[in-house]
Design goal:
- There is one protein chain.
- By secondary structure, this protein is of the alpha/beta class.
- The protein contains 16 helices and 17 strands.
- It has three domains: 70 residues, Beta Barrel (Elongation Factor Tu (Ef-tu), domain 3), CATH 2.40.30.20; 267 residues, 3-Layer(aba) Sandwich (Rossmann fold), CATH 3.40.50; 128 residues, Lysin, CATH 1.20.150.20.
- The protein is 38% helix and 18% strand.
- Strands 7, 10, 11, 12, 13, 14, 15, 16 and 17 form a nine-stranded mixed β-sheet that branches. A six-stranded antiparallel β-barrel has the order 1-2-5-4-3-6.
- Strand 1 and strand 2 form a beta hairpin.
- Helix 12 crosses helix 14.
- It starts with a helix and ends with a helix.
């Protein structure tokens, strides 16, 4: 009987303002409930008062005062499962790729959920492989980490995300790319690159588009997170990309101003930090074995790192990668400024050799940067300084890969370790550039299997370098030409 009465609750629209509607009635309504009119058009309850509720229209519709909305039990509103792979859906779960209907809906639309206490969290100790040495060796991302990717527009952030997804092939990882306010053309290109590149077996796109307006785009990250939780609760590793939180914040600001809420700093709503931080903290590594690796993007038209949204998200995540449009324009990939980037928990996923090698690489790059600064004043450099500059140039060359040129971690470690052996003595970046192909072919070959196996087993970098010196350097000396 109670269920029947609940289904019969009716509210009357008393006022509208763009996509915002004020409705009398519906006494059982709660925030984040979905209400439906006679045409099947949906609205999301966003606020309650003593005599009315406020809701935003999720479907593109023209609602007028006097129309009725019905409050229904929170029945299944999303279709979630492996059948989503290779598909493009909107934040309401409706397919928008022209590939036909989805199976029946089997899950409610849950936009708000507590992150859970620490007892549900598991250790962060497994690495998410990007395929790029600069990230995997120096700025690693662990499964369950929340790593911010930030930079100006056209700085290579989106290509990096696409390549990272494509590198998850064969790892039983589910990838969810969520767009916010992007153009239809951009989403079509994204789907084409990902799905024709082989990622359709484990990736799908939740597309909030610029044509959808604020209501759909404000809920897109929450829908993406809820779907990611669905798969992680099955014990799967999930990579969730939110592209991007700057646009999301702008939609939240638009909605807040339309609702008449007092603006805070930079006209954003006063609870903007809570809204985004509460979402971000739901990612992590969990006791039951699954994980959600969250990669929120922040893309701006300027290289700003001190504005409200940037500092808010930086303070909520476990680190950030700073992308550079100048490096990307020069052909560097991934175009990351390593000295302005940080990973706070990623190195917990490194093997002992990776940690020690990363320390050596970071120190060498910092020393090389310092020596480069001295050369600007015309200072005469010592032999030791020239050696450091040469080794730094070689390292940068080896960590500069083409888009689509992904390397396994064990190959990356052996390749970068060559810089710290006699093989690099007296050789500059030009030599390595000429001989990079034979070097890579040999390091990838079966002849190097025993050395590559040591990446996960050896616990002393000096012993590892000695092994590389003894087994890898001599063959490479004969293969390479000056």
């Amino acid at each position: 009987m109670e269920q029947q009465l609940y289904n019969k609750e009716i509210g009357i629209v008393r006022a509208t303002k763009h996509y915002l509607v004020s409705i009398e009635g519906l006494p059982s309504a709660r925030v984040h409930d979905i209400i439906v009119n006679s045409e099947g058009e949906r609205a999301l309850v966003t606020g309650l008062s003593h005599d009315a509720i406020e809701a935003v229209l999720l479907d593109q519709s023209d609602v007028r005062p006097g129309e009725q909305f019905e409050l229904r039990a929170q029945e299944d509103q999303l279709a979630i499962g492996d059948f989503l792979m290779g598909r493009v859906i909107n934040p309401l779960g409706d397919p928008i790729d022209g590939k036909g209907a989805l199976p029946p809906r089997n899950a409610p639309l849950v936009l708000e959920r507590e992150a859970g206490d620490l007892a549900r969290r598991g250790p962060i100790q497994r690495q998410l492989m990007s395929g790029y040495a600069l990230v995997d060796a120096v700025l690693p991302i662990a499964k369950g980490q929340r790593q911010l990717l930030m930079g100006p527009i056209q700085s290579g952030v989106e290509p990096f995300c696409r390549e990272l997804i494509r590198n998850q092939a064969g790892t039983d990882t589910v990838c969810i790319y969520t767009t916010i306010g992007k153009s239809g053309a951009m989403i079509r290109r994204l789907a084409e690159v990902l799905f024709e590149g082989g990622a359709s077996a484990y990736t799908y796109i939740i597309a909030g588009t610029s044509e959808d307006g604020a209501p759909l785009n404000t809920i897109a990250p929450s829908v993406g997170m809820f779907m990611a939780e669905y798969f992680s609760e099955q014990g799967k590793d999930v990579v969730l990309i939110l592209d991007d939180l700057y646009t999301h914040a702008k939609y939240l600001r638009e909605k807040a101003l339309l609702e008449g809420r007092l603006p805070g700093r930079e006209s954003y709503p006063g609870d903007i930090f809570y809204q985004q931080a509460h979402l971000i903290e739901r990612a992590g590594s969990f006791e039951q074995g699954g994980s959600i690796t969250l990669l929120p993007l922040l893309q701006t038209d300027i290289e700003a790192t001190t504005d409200l949204i940037m500092t808010n998200v930086m303070g909520t995540t476990d680190g950030h990668l700073q992308f550079s449009s100048a490096l990307y324009a020069q052909g560097t990939f991934p175009p990351i400024l390593e000295q302005e980037s940080v990973t706070r928990v990623g190195k917990h996923a490194h093997t002992v050799i990776q940690k020690q090698l990363a320390t050596s690489i970071t120190t060498l790059l910092a020393d090389a940067k310092e020596q480069e600064r001295f050369t600007q004043f015309g200072s005469e450099l010592s032999e030791a300084s020239r050696t450091i500059l040469a080794m730094g140039s070689v390292l940068r060359l080896l960590m500069n890969q083409n888009e689509g040129e992904r390397l396994p971690v064990d190959v990356q470690v052996v390749l970068l370790a060559l810089v710290f052996t006699s093989f690099s003595t007296g050789k500059d970046a030009t030599f390595f550039s000429k001989n990079l192909h034979p070097i890579l072919e040999y390091v990838r070959s079966d002849a190097c299997v025993s050395v590559r196996d040591l990446v996960s087993k050896e616990r002393d970098l000096n012993k590892f370098l000695a092994k590389v010196e003894h087994e890898v350097v001599p063959p490479l000396q004969s293969l390479c030409h000056t």
